[in-house]
Design a protein that fits this description.
The complex is a heterodimer of chains A (about 220) and B (about 270).
Chain A lengths: L2 H42 L3 H16 L2 H11 L9 H27 L2 H9 L4 H31 L11 H12 L2 H30 L5
Helix pairs in contact in A: 1-2, 1-4, 1-6, 1-7, 1-8, 2-4, 3-4, 4-6, 5-6, 6-8, 7-8
Chain B lengths: L4 H6 L9 E10 L2 E11 L4 E5 L6 H8 L7 E6 L4 E4 L6 H10 E4 L11 H12 L4 H14 L15 H14 L4 E5 L7 H16 L3 E5 L3 H7 L2 E6 L2 E6 L1 H6 L4 H11 L3
Parallel strand pairs in B: 3-8, 3-9, 6-7, 7-8
Antiparallel strand pairs in B: 1-2, 1-4, 4-5, 9-10
Classes of the chains: A mainly alpha (about 220), B alpha/beta (about 270).
Main location (chain A): membrane
Membrane topology (chain A): Multi-pass membrane protein
Protein name (chain A): Amino acid ABC transporter permease
Chain lengths: ~220, ~270
């Protein structure tokens, strides 16, 4: 085993994680959650056309592979003269992807809040939006934390697909070093270990967050 | 103290203007008529208890008064605020809000907001909806909490309280809205038996203070001691109404008698 290569590649891979994988995941998740919240609310709307649009969006995202979504945006759109750089393409595709999955999580969380909470909010005079914002969503947020943490961890791993549309993130750097050194097994296992470490850290963070949020809720 | 109706008659004063006058209230869920035609008069300072078997429509009456159900027939008049509603016409949000503003409700499962402290539960409506100044609202909330024996609990979360304490917070939350009338939907039905008394005694105190109240309850002793009028509902109509002494000792209707018998001698 070439320990020198393991050590010398660790730096570039870490740089790839810090400047590629992690910001890509964070940005896509932040935008994705906003999309998801809007889609979840649209899906719950009594207006048929609004819930119809949301239902269609969620269905398309969940019914097509992420790699195809990436390719449509990066390699497909240039055919109609819409040319988007690798990074924005990646963030658009990942955000839309997260939005579709997280929308269903948030919708389920909102529906899990007992009807009595809505009624108590109406009773104290709140209109629907205020009840949603002050009473329902804070409780739904707690319910959403475990499944959304899982979505985020999946997203971190999914960023590796962006190497295929030329985004310089950790896995693309691993591929480059592997091709250069001819040590494919070593580099790919090293990248795998680094992804695993990142996810271990995130899981630990998820545990702490869940314990914090459960303090007041019986 | 609520005025004694007999004294008013003797003084030959005109009867006081009702706070609420409900006529012919009707509500169906699909093919099931829950309320067929319910009349209800509520005089200021009076306590009305609604009793009856489950499914008789008593909770639906209460929820209609708070705009949580939309009746499909009947009228509601609140002379003091000049509000007149005809439920056979589509209910606008503005009208629903005016109906709702008359009253505040205490729920069977308290329905406190679990993510807010006791104080925040109480002040949420006055602050966020009514837009009253925080200092005044919080001072009033603390005074009300003290009054129902919850001194020092304002920073607690609902899950940290006993069932009886939770329900007393529910009562304070309703009082803090400064409503004209209080609605209680079986406020002790989901409590452990030893906790029922503390909630009923708070309610009796409110009645003694002159609050106008509508109470759906199975606590016959409470109805007998506190109510001015008792309405027995069955099958979506008021089968019998009167002073508690009359209803409980000499019910006119056979079904009222059977219902009371079952409650007093369950086996």
């Amino acid at each position: 085993m070439d320990w020198d290569l393991v050590l010398s590649s660790l730096g570039p891979l870490a740089v790839g994680a810090i400047t590629g994988t992690i910001p890509l995941a964070l940005a896509s998740f932040a935008i994705g959650i906003v999309i998801a919240l809007l889609a979840a609310l649209a899906r719950l709307s009594p207006r048929w056309w609004l819930s119809g649009i949301a239902r269609f969006y969620i269905s398309v995202i969940r019914g097509t592979p992420l790699i195809v979504q990436l390719y449509v945006i990066f390699f497909g759109l240039p055919s109609i003269d819409v040319i988007i750089d690798p990074w924005p393409s990646a963030i658009i595709a990942l955000s839309l992807n997260v939005g579709g999955y997280a929308a269903e999580v948030i919708r389920a969380a909102i529906l899990s809040i007992p009807r009595g909470q809505w009624e108590a909010a109406y009773m104290i005079g709140m209109p629907r939006w205020l009840a949603l914002r002050r009473i329902i969503l804070p409780q739904a947020a707690r319910v959403s934390v475990p499944p959304l943490s899982n979505t985020f961890i999946s997203l971190v791993k999914d960023t590796a697909l962006c190497s295929l549309i030329l985004v310089t993130e950790m896995f693309r750097i691993a591929q480059q070093i592997a091709a250069f050194s001819n040590e494919f097994l070593l580099l790919y296992v090293e990248a795998a270990v680094l992804y695993w470490v990142i996810c271990l850290v995130l899981s630990a963070g998820q545990d702490r967050l869940e314990r914090r949020l459960e303090r007041h809720v019986a | 103290m609520s005025p004694d109706p007999d004294e008013l008659v003797e003084a030959t004063e005109p009867p006081p203007e009702p706070m609420l006058e409900v006529r012919g209230l009707a509500k169906s869920f699909g093919d099931t008529a829950v309320l067929r035609s319910v009349d209800l008069d509520l005089l200021p300072g009076r306590v009305v208890c609604l009793i009856g078997p489950s499914g008789s429509g008593k909770t639906t009456v209460l929820r209609s008064l708070n705009g949580l159900e939309t009746p499909d027939g009947g009228t509601l008049r609140a002379p003091l605020t000049g509000l007149e509603v005809d439920f056979s016409e589509p209910l606008t949000n503005a009208t629903r809000n005016r109906v709702r503003d008359l009253s505040a409700m205490v729920f069977q499962q308290h329905n406190l907001f679990p993510h807010l402290t006791v104080l925040e539960n109480v002040t949420e409506g006055p602050l966020r909806v009514q837009g009253r100044p925080r200092a005044e609202v919080e001072e009033e909330a603390h005074a009300l909490l003290d009054r129902v024996g919850l001194h020092g609990k304002s920073g607690a979360f609902p899950a940290e309280l006993s069932g009886g304490q939770q329900q007393r917070v529910g009562i304070v939350r309703a009082l803090a809205l400064r409503p004209q009338l209080l609605l209680f939907d079986e406020p002790t039905s989901s409590l452990d038996p030893e906790l029922v008394g503390e909630v009923l005694s708070v309610m009796k105190g409110l009645a003694d203070d002159g609050w106008t109240m509508v109470v759906v309850t199975h606590e016959l002793a409470f109805a007998r001691d506190v109510a001015d009028d008792v309405l027995f509902l069955d099958g979506g109509v008021v089968l019998e109404r009167g002073a508690p002494a009359d209803i409980f000792t000499a019910p006119r209707e056979e079904r009222t008698r059977r219902f009371l018998d079952r409650l007093m001698r369950p086996f």
